Amino acid sequence: MRRLAVSGTYSTGKTTTTIALSHLTGVPRTHARTMREILADALPGKRLEQCTAAELIQLGIRRFTERAVHESHLPDGFLSDGSSLHEWVYGKVRVRAGIHPTDGYEAGEQAPGFYEEVIDAMGAVLKDHARRAYDVFVHLPVEFDLVADGHRPVSKRFRSMSDELLRGTLDELRIPYHVVGGTLEQRLATIVDIFGLPARMSLERAVELARRETADTYRQVSEAAERRPA
């Protein structure tokens, strides 16, 4: 079994796609919690847009650690929701787009001077992990609107820059990848065809299960965020 990572920036459908693909094929799925999920344990009472540059670095390290541990439990292969490159890209784009890059971002709100140097040093580790941990990527392009859930302090510009950097980094590392777009059903059919994966249930059933799980997770995260102090 190969070690397959599904790549893509915010709101490209990585989570729903990987959950559905795991149900469809039986390939075990691995992932790390999102930054905002980790935030509740690491920095109680804070929202992501309130974090300092140093705190964002801490969250990135925590997320990568969680990701690497989960992957290590699946030595025979896995399907990964995201990859270590996402921690790298998240930090790097914040250097370029501002520490809190919303659509109302002002050019003067730059990350502190040390931030890019630290992110680049982290990037060396995260890229090395990607070379060793993943055999191939499926990259999901930006096709859907950004989910307006109030918990993603990013903009269309941030998404576009992240997508460009993700693909550029895969090219730099010479890790093979396939760009797969379309509806969820079309994505699943294409990925199964590319890799010759088995199907243990119908596409429709896999999609139904994935959408249910994604909705449940989204609700739980949103409820947890609402309970945090303002």
CATH architecture call: 3-Layer(aba) Sandwich
**Helix/strand/pairing category:** alpha/beta
Can you tell me the CATH topology? Rossmann fold
CATH classification class: Alpha Beta
Task: Tell me the strand order in the biggest sheet.
Answer: 2-3-1-4-5
* Overall number of strands: 5
CATH superfamily: P-loop containing nucleotide triphosphate hydrolases
Helix fraction bin: 55-70%
State the order of secondary-structure elements, H for helix, E for strand.
Answer: EHEHHEHHEHEHH
Largest sheet: 5 strands, parallel
InterPro entries: NadR/Ttd14_AAA_dom, P-loop_NTPase
Pfam family, one: AAA_28
Domain NadR/Ttd14 AAA: 4-187
Protein name: ATP-binding protein
Short description:
Pfam families: AAA_28 (PF13521). Residues 4-187 form the NadR/Ttd14 AAA domain. The chain has 230 residues and is of the alpha/beta class.
Molecular structure report:
The chain is an alpha/beta fold and 230 residues long. It contains eight helices and five strands. Strands 2-3-1-4-5 form a five-stranded parallel beta sheet, sandwiched between helices. Helix 6 (156-173) links the parallel strand 4 and strand 5 (177-179). Helix 1 (14-25) packs across helix 7 (184-195) and helix 1 (14-25) crosses helix 8. This is ATP-binding protein. Keywords: ATP-binding, Nucleotide-binding.
